[in-house]
Please model this.
Amino acid sequence: MFSAQGPSLRELAVQALSSVERGYDLLAPKFDHTPFRTPDGILDAATDALRPLGPFEQGLDVCCGTGAGMRTLEPLCQGGITGVDFSAGMLAQAREAHPDAEWVRADVRALPFADAFDLAVTFGALGHLLPAERPALFAGVYRALRPGGLFAFPIGAPPPVSSGLYWALLGFDLVMRMRNAVWRPPFVMYYRTCPLHAVRNDLTAAGFSVATAPMTSLGRRQDGSPRYRLVLARKPGEHM
Model:
């Protein structure tokens, strides 16, 4: 799962016992050599699904980490692109990799933007928010977008109960809940708290109109349904 350039077991243990912010500050220099970084295949599939909906001007990567989402924003946005994250360590890596982008340190539950972007994306970050915190994120993205702007992110289909992945994700979430029950500060990272129906309801409550697009290049499940969908949340108004 980890390359030779990735973190050691000790480094992962220290991260797991830290806060989310401090943990990612520590992990940042080696983050791109871990399986936690969004794979290029998912980024490219998102780019392909969004391309017919553009072109876009200003783009925003929410919870940008080391800047992997620039792979999607750069070919789609004709204007500037911005990444926002609360980890100074992750932003330092992103700034080094993409010096032409704008990087902002902020809590995504209180985004400091208004009517500034035409496209916002996020990859692999919703599990860092408790379900009760999602409305604040979605409201902030809504404010950050111009009328007609689009918020997009991939979401995976739940694995079948008979699969090893189902039990691995369930086990991880249970371990994290036990860890957070007995250790402070908490480290919020859960894989099973963002089902599509709940995310759709929260986006709708924030004012978005919500659709999804199948990411067929990422494969299909045995019943023929796509393994991943791209959530497309549109802010009402005319896209300029």
